[in-house]
Every structure is written in structure tokens, then in C-alpha cells.
Amino acid sequence: MPCPLEYLGKLEYLENLENLEYLDNLASLEYLENNELMKDIVFATNNEHKLSELRQLMAGKYNVLSLADIGCHDDIPETAATIEGNAMIKAQWVKEHYGYDCFSDDTGLEIDALGGEPGVHSARYGGVAHDSERNIDKVLHLLHGVPLERRTARFRTAIVLILDGETHQFEGKVEGHILTERHGAGGFGYDPIFKPVEAECAFGEMTAEQKNRISHRGRAVAKLTEFLSTRS
Ligand code: ITT
Fold first, then answer.
1. DSSP 8-state assignment for residue 128
2. What is the CATH number of domain 38-229?
3. Is 64 exposed, middle or buried, given 0-12, 13-18 or 19+ CB atoms closer than 10 A?
4. What's the whole-number mean pLDDT along residues 78-88?
5. Is 106 a catalytic site residue?
6. From ligand 1's centre to the CA of 58, what distance in Å?
7. Mind listing the pLDDT tens digit for each residue in 93-146?
8. What are residue 102's phi and psi, to 5 degrees?
9. pLDDT at residue 155 tops 60
10. How far is CA 162 from the centre of its chain?
11. With CB atoms 3.0 to 4.6 Å apart as the test, which of 28, 59, 96, 180 could cross-link to 23 if both were Cys?
12. What is the Cα 185 distance to its own chain's centre?
């Protein structure tokens, strides 16, 4: 339990709230610290699945705002040759056009037997943007007949954070194999055909919590939140 003196600043703030009379113990203050007083942070993504993963990963620490929450409905161009470059474009777009400090992530699935493809082209590998069924069909087709030991792959996530005029980068990755058919209906994107080395099943068969614990995005976000905790 933190020292009550640490709450003095918040008490001043709370004095202006109508419901102060109900705040009769430190547990209530702690609740407010974790919820109503949580800091906002903008996540520059149009992908609802990624947004929901991030909200879960940062729950209790940050209130993650979406692009819609800040009135941004732009189709931000992702024209860089690397996932780091695309993450940079998205974060800079939000900062330049909307003025918010923010972070973005870009993720690629790198399959060794395909020379690292789809990589930066993961979203539209099958020809149509964000059509996961087509993307998976193409991967399974290209890997047809390739034995398990040569189906090695990894998800790699690059996060770019723009904060107080500075840019910071974080990376997370998870090694695994591409399965020969779909498994499970959980997650999104390529999750049904990716089995991490440290798990017995595909991402598609995991709960959100199980995936977040070992995923590329979970690992990159852990570094981001660790960094943010040194700044608050
Ligand atoms: P934003 O650019 O709006 O953030 P996006 O869908 O384009 O969303 P990414 O560029 O980061 O997201 O990822 C490219 C694709 O890679 C994405 O559309 C999915 O097909 C796949 N992908 C990303 N993260 C994944 C994950 O955790 N599990 C499975 N597939 C994933």
C-alpha cells in the first residue's frame, strides 16, 4: 500500500468532485488512481483486434485511446520498406496532423522458407488488404509439402513512441512454426497457423491472456510500459 502522503495531490483534485463524501478509505483512492486518474495514451492503429490487445496489455496503467477517439479516420499510408518505417509513419502522422503524443505498432510475419515474406507485406499478402483468409491460403499454398522443420517463422513487432518531442523504438518477437492447416478461431490475422515454440498449440487456440503473455506484441508492449513508467 503506497504512503497516504502520496495521495495528497490527488486529494486536492478529489475535493472538487461531488462524490468526495463516498471516498471513505484508501482503497477508494487506489481505485481512482487505477481508473479515473489513469493517463491517456493514443494508439495509432485502425485494427480493432490490436486495439483490444493493447487495452488488455495496458489495463490499469493507461487509458488507451484509438484513432477514432481523437477524430482520426484517415487511411494512413504504410509505404515504408520495413515494419519500423511503417510504425514511424503512423506515429508521425498522428503527431503532425492531430498534435497528440502517441505510439504505433507495425507487425510482420517472417517465414524463413519464403525468404522472410510476408514481412512488411503481411496485411495484404493475399492481394486484398486485411483479408486474413486469403493471406493464410497463400501462405499454406506456398508452403505446401515443406516439412515442419523447415516451416520456421517469427512474428516481429516494432513500436514507435513519440513523447515530449522525442522518438523511441521498442521491439518484440516470438519464434515459431507455420502449421499445415488452421487451428482455432481465436486471435486474428495469421494466428490460426502460427504455433510459438514455447506453446503446445497455435495462437488461434489460445485465450487473449495466453497469447499476450508470450506474443511479439506483448513483449514489445512490456518494454514500452516499462519505459513509460520511468517517465511518469
Ligand atoms: P494498423 O496498421 O492500422 O495498425 P494492420 O492490420 O495493418 O493495422 P499491422 O500492419 O501491424 O496491422 O500488421 C499487418 C498484418 O499482420 C495484420 O493485418 C495481420 O494480418 C498480421 N498480424 C499482425 N499482428 C498479428 C498478430 O498478433 N497475430 C496474427 N497476425 C497478425
1. S
2. 3.90.950.10
3. buried
4. 96
5. yes
6. 18
7. 999 999 999 999 999 999 999 999 999 999 999 999 889 999 999 999 999 999
8. -165, 175
9. yes
10. 15
11. 28
12. 19
Domain residue ranges of the chain, discontinuous segments joined by +: 1-37, 38-229
Strands 152-163 and 166-178: antiparallel
Q: Which residue's CA is the nearest one to ligand 1's atom 13? A: 107
The residue whose CA has the least distance to atom 25 of ligand 1 is: 189
Distances (CA, A) of 96 to 2, 26, 89, 210: 38, 41, 10, 36
- Residues 17 and 149: their CA atoms lie apart, in Å, by 61
- How many Cα neighbours within 13 Å face the side chain of 24? 2
Mean pLDDT score, 48-64:
92
pLDDT tens, 189-228? 999 999 999 999 999 999 999 999 999 999 999 999 999 9
Higher-pLDDT residue of 3, 202: 202
d(CA 142, CA 149): 16
Per annotation, catalytic residue among 69, 74, 106, 191: 106
Percent of the chain with pLDDT strictly greater than 70: 84
Closest residue by CA, ligand 1 atom 15: 123
Which ligand 1 atom is nearest residue 53's CA? 27
Q: Which residues of 145-183 are buried (b: 16+ CB within 10 A; e: fewer)?
A: eeeeeebebbbbbbbbbbbeeeebbbebbbebbbbeebb
